[in-house]
Amino acid sequence: MRRLGIHSFVWTDGKTQEGLEMALEKSAEHGYRMVELAYLFPGRYDIERLAARARALDLEIVVTMGLPPEADVSSEDRDVVAHGRALLSDVVKTVRDVGGIRLGGILYSKHGKYDRMPSRDGWMNSTEAIAATAETARTCGVEIVLEIVNRFESNLLNTTAQGLKFIADTDRDDVRLHLDTFHMNIEEADPAAAIRLAGDRLGYFHIGENYRGFLGTGTIDFTAYFRALADIGYDRDITFESFSGAIVDEALSVACGIWRDTWTDNDALAAHARTFIEEKWREAAMARQVLAAV
Ligand SMILES: [Mn+2]
């Protein structure tokens, strides 16, 4: 693991500049070395000031988002796809301007439940849009990772295998997968095998409990996930993601179905998550050493 990060929605709904700056302070205070900001749309924040705060705190910034319906690059409507491509290009430049290292999330489709089947033309439109976005990102020094999410949040990429096929179709070797334990728990027959299948195409990893609350209090077998990460020699970033009705961003909460409080004390949540992830990471590394020594 390179850096351990935390999603800003643990701290703030992201509506104000002050909220985001507080999220940076809180993340650093809790020993996290990276913060994930969502929907960093151009013009909403003082980007220069955020960049300076992150630098001063030695925090890396990652940005994630999902596309709104009117900017769905997996649409068959040319205007909608064009809007999506322009939005992705703008956001990549904003990520560059804030000093961010990576743009992830549901960049390849709408974020939300679809009422139609995915189409071949939509798939092609999306792979072409991501290829173009990756080219812009390359010139900006930003990495593109595609988050594989559950069936209720996209109809295009729900499994690692689908994600690998999609990346192959973009014809880019700099686009990687962004996997998330919460989504894998719903969609993958064997999540640990899916991590091994992703191998060196895995670029970013989200840790969340099955109900998005305190780690270790739900049904996800984190030991299996961490051992798989150790097996593939995963050496990139890991971010803790947790949402509660205690902190509500209308767009994200509705898209993710956050209807209730899974926690109210975010300081306790963040402190616990860091300890939990670092401990699981150490355990997995030790298990691998024991195995190799036999
Ligand atoms: Mn996630």
Descriptive overview:
By secondary structure, the chain is of the alpha/beta class. It has one domain: Divalent-metal-dependent TIM barrel enzymes (TIM Barrel), CATH 3.20.20.150. 46% of the residues lie in helices and 16% in strands. The chain is built from ten helices and eight strands. An eight-stranded parallel beta barrel has the order 1-2-3-4-5-6-7-8, surrounded by seven helices. Helix 3 (78-97) links the parallel strand 3 (60-67) and strand 4 (102-110). The longest helix has 28 residues, at 266-293. Manganese (II) ion (MN) binds next to loops.
CATH superfamily membership: Divalent-metal-dependent TIM barrel enzymes
Total of DSSP H or I helical runs spanning 4+ residues: 10
- Rounded to the nearest angstrom, the radius of gyration is 18 Å
Q: In CATH's first tier, which class applies? A: Alpha Beta
Q: Sheet bearing the most strands, described?
A: 8 strands, parallel, barrel
Q: How many separate structural domains?
A: 1
Tell me what portion of residues adopts beta-strand conformation: 15-25%
The total strand number stands at: 8
Helical/strand content category: alpha/beta
